Amino acid sequence: PPYGAPPPGGAPPPMYGAPPPGGAPPPMYGAPPPGGAPPPMYGAPPQGPPGGAPPPYGVPPGAGGAQPAYPAPGAPGGGSPTSEIEISLECKGLVNKDVMSKSDPMVYAFVGEGGRWRHFGTTEMIKDNLNPKFAKCFVVKYHFEKTTTLCFRVYDIDDEKDLREEKQCFLGEVIVDLGALVSSRTTPFQQHLSMNKSVKPPSPYELQKQQTMAMMSKEQAMSKFGSMVIHIEQRGVNSNDDVIIEARGVKLAKKDTFGKSDPVLMFFRKQLEAANWVKVHQTEVVKKTLNPTWKKMVIKLGRLCNGDLFRPLRIECKDWDKDGTYDDIGHIETSLNEILSGRRELVLLHPKGKSKSVGTIVFDSIEIRKNLSFIDYLQKGMRMNLVAAIDFTQSNGMPTDPASLHFRQNFDFSQLQPGMNQGGPQPNQYQKAILSIGSVLTPYSQTGRIDAFGFGGKFANGEISHNFILNGSTNPGCEGPHGVLEAYNMALNNVALWGPTIFSQVIRATASLANDARAQGRLDYYVLLIITDGVITDMRETIAEIVRASSLPLSIVIVGVGNADFRAMDMLDGDDERLAIDGQVAARDIVQFVPFSSVASRGIEAIAEETLREIPEQVTSYFQSQPQLNF
Questions:
Q1: In this prediction, what percent of the chain has a pLDDT beyond 90?
Q2: E strand or H helix at 340, and its extent?
Q3: What distance in Å separates the CA atoms of residue 474 and residue 493, rounded to the nearest whole number?
Q4: In b/e form, how buried is each residue of 28-61, taking b as 16+ CB within 10 angstroms?
Q5: How many other CB atoms are found less than 10 A from the CB of residue 255?
Q6: How far apart, in Å, do the first and last CA atoms of the chain sit?
Q7: Which residue in 366, 368, 363 sits closest to 247, CA to CA?
Q8: CB 293 within 8 A of CB 307
Q9: What is the dihedral of CA 90, 93, 99, 103, to 10 degrees?
Q10: Beta-strand pair 591-595/554-560
Q11: 3-class secondary structure per residue, 499-555
């Protein structure tokens, strides 16, 4: 029968919405059910005993329900990052600032915090290249609910031994909003470099205005300084695990006229959305050989393939030339899974598609090493220990002088907490640093105690000490940050300020504790907090102690209080280059230096946030280097 026609001998089907045969019509939308009360109006109190009031927002239905507290920072729904974003950079058409060769570019990365730029990393330097593709990436935490402004400055490196910005030649910068990068439909994101070096982060309105103006400007005017290409990708699972590779080349093609090739391997991963290749690693150059063996490679699984074993990889073998350029020898397209599955000898494809042999890459060894996270180590029994050392030198000023950095106002230490006492008596900068950092670290200690020392003080018998117990007893342990504050107050009443400012002795003493823990196989880690008002007088001895301690379970946090010029202290913080002395290089970066004035405007809680930022990574880097420890 035609569609909708009644069945043979049957009645026609009911119209849409008509009552069923012999039944009552259906109730109107929103009408009360038959024999029932009408539904409550929107916002009316829940049905129940007469006189019931609507519950407060967020309280579950039911009598006596308590209103939940707002989530704490770091808790789900609070300040925790939505995800981690990996940022890879390349530049195109950079200005050439070198006369006899090409520029040697390096990118310095900054994030806007508290109205200033905070430097958080650099790429590697690439010699003689105006179109560099950087292998080193940046990982930033993405929060949907907050604005994160990033600045990438490109410099031509003129002084490799001193990487401070003022020693290099500025090639331009790009300022972007992380949210705009994440939500951009144009992948990869590309922006022209600006030669106007920003003094501070722009407001969101200013940034949007700048980018709108840039789009309206003529392409020719904007392109003369070059551009930056930004690749982003959300980090996958197991990103912290290591891929350990031992590889060599066999019978590579000869590219040099008067000698053999100088081979190097470059690893690229495929960006799935944009279908382009992003550089993730580069080996060293092995000179004058057609059968090179490269040094063992340790690449983060997240960096190599974002945790995806089936992600397409491209391995390019190139011949390095003295002018900084490369000649193609051949390439391979594969995946980590393919190599792990047993295909260890991969034939290089000719760069021009010819059938001519250009060599083979052999993977003698490849494995994935599982790395534990900071939280994993804590849950498996790692113990944190805090040691505090306070500057008792005369440059702080007499403690009774209101202008002194050691001047104290009267208040109850036991009631003092970060963020409290607004409008009342204020703790000095030493007290704020002790309270802020101690309050964060103490919960990670099994005993809740902090060993506290002073340096640069003079006793009544004339003795000058650069490592004395703060509470005047034979036991340096204090009950948490408030116990340290009490010991600090007691010491100022009994120890004269003297000098000079010497760090090496307190570092050596704390390193001895860390060394004992390592020797005994204990799962202990030490954090030494040094609070000082000036530049140290034993810089060489301090560097030597830090280099020696870099292989121990120890991190050193230095807070500079007051208004002294602390630029010389930055050399202790090995973010960009490992500390070294007399040919001995630090095993890892263990120092974080923060001037108090740079975070004071952001509140007392920001002191701990800024100074302790690198501790989790320093902890994991140490324990990953100690496979004999039983975790």
A1: 51
A2: helix 336-340
A3: 18
A4: eeeeeeeeeeeeeeeeeeeeeeeeeeeeeeeeee
A5: 20
A6: 76
A7: 363
A8: no
A9: 0
A10: parallel
A11: CCCCCHHHHHHHHHHHHHHHHCCCCEEEEEEEEECCCCCCHHHHHHHHHHHCCCCEE
| Cβ–Cβ under 8 Å, residues 437 and 611 | yes
**Unique residue bearing structure tokens 């029968």:** 1
Closest by CA to 227, choosing from 154, 148, 126, 139, is 154
| Cis, peptide link before residue 188, omega less than 30° from 0 | yes
CA angle at residue 124 from 119 to 128, to 5 degrees?
A: 125
Q: Closest by alpha carbon to 558, among 535, 533, 530, 578?
A: 530
Two structure tokens written together for 203: 């407001």
Q: Which amino acid is at 349?
A: L
The closest of 441, 469, 426, 468 to 529, measured between CA atoms, is 441
Which tokens hold the place of 230?
Answer: 């930004």
Q: What pairing do the DSSP bridges indicate for beta strands 227-234 and 242-250?
A: unpaired
Distance CA 529, CA 434 (A): 9
Q: Are 327 and 255 in contact (CB under 8 A)?
A: yes
Q: How far apart are CA 522 and CA 514, in angstroms?
A: 10
The CA angle 127-132-135, to the nearest 5 degrees, is: 95
- Cα–Cα distance list, 404 to 400, 459, 563 (Å): 7, 20, 12
Asked if residue 283 lies in contact with residue 265, where contact means CB atoms within 8 angstroms, the answer is yes
Nearest to 467 by CA among 430, 506, 513: 506
Q: Give the CA radius of gyration of the chain.
A: 32
DSSP per-residue letters across 586-631:
-SS--EEEEEGGGTGGG-THHHHHHHTTTHHHHHHHHHHT-TTS--
Lowest-confidence region among 118-132, 373-387, 416-430, 601-615: 416-430
What are the backbone angles phi and psi of residue 55, rounded to the nearest 5°? -70, 155
pTM: 0.65
What are the CA-CA distances from residue 6 to residues 10, 18, 25, 442, 451 (Å)?
6, 16, 22, 81, 92
- Tell me which H or E stretch contains 232: strand 227-234
Q: In which residue are the tokens 């490369």 written?
A: 326
Structure confidence by residue, pLDDT tens digits, 548-580? 999 999 999 999 999 888 877 877 876 667 889
Residue 191 pairs with which residues in a beta bridge?
228
The three-class DSSP label of residue 469 is strand
Structure tokens at 291: 């059968």
Distance CA 618, CA 588 (A): 8
DSSP 358-415: --EEEEEEEEEE----HHHHHHTT-EEEEEEEEE-BGGG--TTSTTSTT------GGG
Instruction: For 312-364, write each residue's pLDDT tens digit.
Output: 999 999 999 988 889 999 999 999 999 999 999 999 999 999 989 999 999 99
